[in-house]
Amino acid sequence: MTPAKPILEIQNLRVALPEGGDRPNALDDLTLTVNEGEIVCLVGESGSGKSMAAGAVMRLLPEPHVRVTQGAVRLDGQDITALGQREMRALRGDRLSMIFQEPMTALNPQKTVGWQIDEVLRLHTDLDRRARKARVLEILADVHIPDPASTYNAYPHQMSGGQRQRVMIAMALVLKPRLIIADEPTTALDVTTQKQILKLIKDLQHVHRTGILFITHDFGVVAEIADRIAVLRLGELVEQGPAAQILNAPQHPYTKALIAAVPALTPPPEKPLVDAPVVLEAKSLRKTFAARGGLLSGKRAPVVAVKDLSFQLRRGETLGVVGESGSGKTTVSRIVTRLLESDSGEVLIDGRDLIAASRRELRALRKDIQMVFQDPMASLNPRKRVIDLIAQGPIVHGTPKAEAHARARELLSLVELSPAAADRFPHEFSGGQRQRIGIARAIAMEPRVIVADEPVSALDVSVQAQVLRLLADLRDRLSLSLLFVTHDLRVAAQLCDKVIVMQKGEIVEAGPTSRVFADPQHSYTQSLLASIPGRDWEPPVQALAVK
């Protein structure tokens, strides 16, 4: 058998950081190869240098402050570190392509999806307008966009997060490049979409012998897709080898710790909460988003996001809301916090209707229900210090400033942050630390209910495990009730007492997590559970249950 030909060769690569950083180099002496038809997963915690490696290969580092100071990066034998900007622009998209982690920042908000994918074909091919449009519709269908013709005329903000990520993947795949760098491409996607995208990537790899450098913190995805695994820690490669070897017999203590943090798929035993009082109740909620569009952008049909939805949440209970992108999960979280108005129905907090409340009554009720958002950086005011962010809610509700500030410092300790963090700004923290600040801000109001919308989806496994343990600990110590919205069924298995499974705005199955996971009744639930990446892989050292 002919040995696989290297597509990407990284040799002794060193990337320097600006003076005053936490370390001198983002990458130090990195050597890594991606062969034809091979998927190499680059794993490590936030700050390990994974995305810096991608930036160095794509020549997208913020030079001269962050720059390559040693080594070579070869694509099909050609050293691309020596190429000029014009040559690199010709290379990107054609032979070398990247799927970015955050599609909303990578897509142009002023251009339609169709225009943006068409631009790639316009710059790199000789196809006429009709042929380009046909190719765009074809690639949108290939990445399982439900309505390619409607999506072609849509703007990024009119799509869900999962759909935007599929558009980014379509842009990267449209020219069938030799090498694809995928930077956390499935982080924001639900399990069935993950399965589809991972299969699509593997099919492309098989048919076109494409090399893929896949950056991820999700070991389920790694188990599903990797041929080889490379583990980065603080810019240094600590372990690499065949996927089966790393996943089942890791040698380095850091690799062992990462794998130990992966949530188990088996839920802990059911916790009896039958006699606990109902704190939050939703009755017959309905929400329809009206048709949008016009002459230029095309017409998009009305969408029934939530249809006749009801549930109960008891004191000290965690209720998981799971389902695919577009199932209505986030819409439910925004209706129950009155960040979005429902068309009909009731949301009762201790018997008081949040939906029918006046503005004055709503302010009082909001003390009892707080929200932890998916992206803490977007929900924290970058101009305010942490102490002011946490104390803001209590001060608005009449707590004296000195008392609110003192309580804010106590809460920082409660969420396991140093009291010294109080005088810093959000950008000075890691993603996991910012999420802890978001949790502290929520519990500052001493709520009865916390609604958490994908609060750990963007965090790496070790930080994710810490935040989940923190939420479980706070729930038990403060008798909180959690409405936990997630697409990660591993997380739901470990944290949630009960789950409701949503499809197209409706609940198709509900019950104790242990029962639903062990014996799903609805075909949709069965499909979700069967689609969990790495479902057949059992980590050799399991993390402690957070429950």
Secondary structure layout:
Layout: E1 6-16, E2 25-35, E3 39-43, H1 50-58, E4 67-75, E5 78-79, H2 85-91, E6 96-99, H3 103-106, H4 113-124, H5 129-142, H6 148-152, H7 161-173, E7 179-183, H8 191-208, E8 211-215, H9 219-225, E9 228-233, E10 236-242, H10 243-248, H11 253-260, E11 278-289, E12 292-294, E13 298-300, E14 303-314, E15 318-323, H12 329-336, E16 344-349, E17 352-353, H13 359-365, E18 369-372, H14 376-379, H15 386-396, H16 401-414, H17 431-443, E19 449-453, H18 461-478, E20 481-485, H19 489-495, E21 498-503, E22 506-512, H20 513-518, H21 523-530
Parallel strand pairs: 3-8, 3-9, 6-7, 7-8, 15-20, 15-21, 18-19, 19-20
Antiparallel strand pairs: 1-2, 1-4, 4-5, 9-10, 11-14, 11-16, 12-13, 16-17, 21-22
Structure in words:
The protein has 547 residues and is an alpha/beta fold. Helices cover 36% and strands 25% of the residues. The protein contains 21 helices and 22 strands. The strands form five sheets. The protein has a six-stranded mixed β-sheet, sandwiched between helices. It has a six-stranded mixed β-sheet with strand order 18-19-20-15-21-22, with helices on both faces. Strand 9 and strand 10 form a beta hairpin. The termini are far apart.
Number of continuous helical runs: 21
Characterize the largest beta sheet: strand count, sense, and whether it forms a barrel.
Answer: 6 strands, mixed
Overall number of strands: 22
Strand percentage, roughly?
15-25%
The CATH class of the largest domain is identified as Alpha Beta
Q: How many domains, in number, for the residues?
A: 4
Any idea what the CATH architecture of the largest domain is? 3-Layer(aba) Sandwich
- N/C terminus separation: 50 Å
Topology-level CATH name of the largest domain: Rossmann fold
Mean pLDDT: 85
What is the SS-derived class? alpha/beta
Q: Kindly provide the radius of gyration, computed on alpha-carbon positions and rounded to a whole number of angstroms.
A: 24 Å
The dominant shape is: globular
Helix content: 25-40%
The spatial strand order of the largest sheet comes to 6-7-8-3-9-10
CATH superfamily of the largest domain: P-loop containing nucleotide triphosphate hydrolases
Question: Which stretches of 5+ consecutive residues score pLDDT under 50?
Answer: 542-547
